Amino acid sequence: MEKSQTENYYVTTSIPYANGSPHLGHSLEFLMADVLARAARQSGKKVIFSTGTDEHGDKIAQKAAEHKVTPKVFVDDISTQFKELQKDMNISNDRFIRTTDKGHEQRAAIIWGKLSHDMYKGKYSGWYDVKEEEFVPEGQADPARKEPSHPQAYKRLEENNYFFKLSKYTNAIKDAIEKDEFRIIPQTRKNEILSLLNEGLNDISVSRPKDKLSWGVDVPGDNTQVMYVWFEALMNYLTVLGYPENADFKKFWPPDVQVVGKDIIRFHAAIWPAMLLSLGLPLPKTLFVHGFININGEAMSKSVGNGVHPKELISHYGVDGFRYFILRHIPSYNDGEFSWDLIDAAYNNELANQLGNAVQRTASMIMKYQKGLIGEMPVADHDIGPYQEALENCQFDRALDEVFQQIKGLNQYIDEEKPWTLASSNDSDHLREVLAYQASSLVQIADLLEPFLPDSATKIRYVFSDGVIRPLKNMLFPKKDLDNK
Ligand code: MSP
Asked: Which of 200, 208, 356, 386 has the smallest count of CB within 10 Å of its CB?
């Protein structure tokens, strides 16, 4: 099956667990996928960008019980928090799927039916990690966590489950990854998954007995079992498009890029492709695996509670100040560090002093020397190849490096051409040329910034795109003082 129209583009994030409030770590993934979606729209493609929340399983049932509310009441609240955060971050998702949506549950049952040719009943006897919602093979179990007194002790399970024949697909998946038909970036992650596949995959449990865990989607035709939360959650990428019958599914499958974190690569690069092969569906074109945001060297997480809330950062640095820091200064292919000092330096030195300043001085010189008239703008001639290549490879940090090289180049040009001396020496033709070149560079820079800093890009175009300067009411990136946060 081929996508009916190549101009259709489908990008997804993973769906975070609705077991606690969103934190800075989640925002990285939303932002990366948002850049891809916006860049695709900018190039004229029709886009479906989906995200959502993962709402079933042991972990959520436990959290709800701790809060003395039903699981549904609990996930309603968390899911709303994720939606609000996405709005605050200017995330342009077209869909938001909740795994408790009736549509998802019904379609998950259909998918289960289609996968049942690769399932059998068996007995699972072993460990279960509730924190990770994972069945843990004996060989990989941490001995300390086998002790019931451990704060994150595994559960001991002896139960009858349905098993999925994951082992059967090991070679086909390996082959698709090696040939880049199912491209995994960065290369380090690809190598990691290939070495896992070389060891071979075991069949996996894909259901839980309802009498032990009722917070899940019923296994069709067996009212004693619910689906294993990961197995059901992965299906969201299909159900959100209305699989199997909806036209969107036919037009948008397979995903162009799926964005996930390094901790869930095995689910997305082994179990998920096996499910798709079993359904007879094409694999995603690209799986992009990002690293973690650390704070004081520690991964941020709901359970550790060291999360700096993105809202706090947005209210201090503005939505684009926040987006900029995450996308340029958290390495796209590695882990990165957050601190207030780092974001403060990035905002002041790069956004205010470089970008804001280039906009400000260009606009004010055109106002001062030419009564706001820009005149004919030359076509900007920067080579955008490296920028495009970086985007194609999900190197968001590098793409922004490229844009900031241009901004730096523009500021150097202004310093060398010295429009203020041209103005005082009455060289008005050359002055007009120089200022028009500045304005045209800034419009091109705005186009490149569009997927990353959409509000700022709109403002820059507003100032320079009408032949005459339209001044902004407020400065683009006013300097900030960290002490006044
Ligand atoms: N519910 C599963 C995903 C199911 S997809 C079918 C899950 N949820 S999660 O809330 O634990 O994580 C959601 C995403 O956030 C994952 O991609 C994870 O890697 C990412 N992050 C969680 N903490 C993170 C950081 N500190 N830094 C960057 N991303 C991290 O896994």
From this structure: 200
